[in-house]
Design goal:
The chain is built from 5 helices and 5 strands. By secondary structure, it is of the alpha/beta class. A 5-stranded parallel beta sheet has the order 2-1-3-4-5, with helices on both faces. The chain binds manganese (II) ion (MN).
Length: 130
């Protein structure tokens, strides 16, 4: 497993700390961003290997952030994993439509969280994954 540089866009401080802690403990580099606009700026500046994107963000939600990331040629190729606390039917499809390659539901489970993320680093995401 390669050490990955992961941009973490999450407004909730507790979730941000937990995700950062879990990822760093497994050797990954984490760049935290508390808002969508900061995340967009950092995505271009730090060129992450992966973006973890909270969907429930103030001002600019995760769908808009995903669309903006995919509209910019400088960040278009970076895979996005959407993280959402809504377990509504259709959410996964909505995230995919906005450009996210992966989808993860909150709450964060410390024992499986990093494995889920690393799955997206190992192989290109597939639409037909169960
Ligand atoms: Mn949030």
């Amino acid at each position: 497993m390669l050490r990955a540089r992961i941009l973490l866009i999450e407004d909730n401080e507790q979730n941000r700390y937990l995700a950062q802690f879990l990822l760093e403990r497994r050797g990954h580099e984490v760049i935290p961003a508390a808002t969508g606009p900061i995340g967009l700026e950092l995505a271009v500046r730090v060129q992450p290997d992966l973006i973890l994107l909270d969907i429930q963000l103030p001002c600019m939600d995760g769908y808009d952030v995903a669309r903006a990331l995919k509209a910019d040629p400088r960040s278009r190729s970076v895979p996005i994993i959407a993280v959402t606390s809504y377990a509504m039917p259709g959410d996964r499809e909505k995230c995919a439509e906005a450009g996210a390659e992966g989808y993860l539901e909150k709450p964060i489970h410390p024992e499986t969280f990093v494995d889920e993320i690393e799955r997206h680093l190992r192989s290109p995401p597939r639409q037909d994954d169960p």
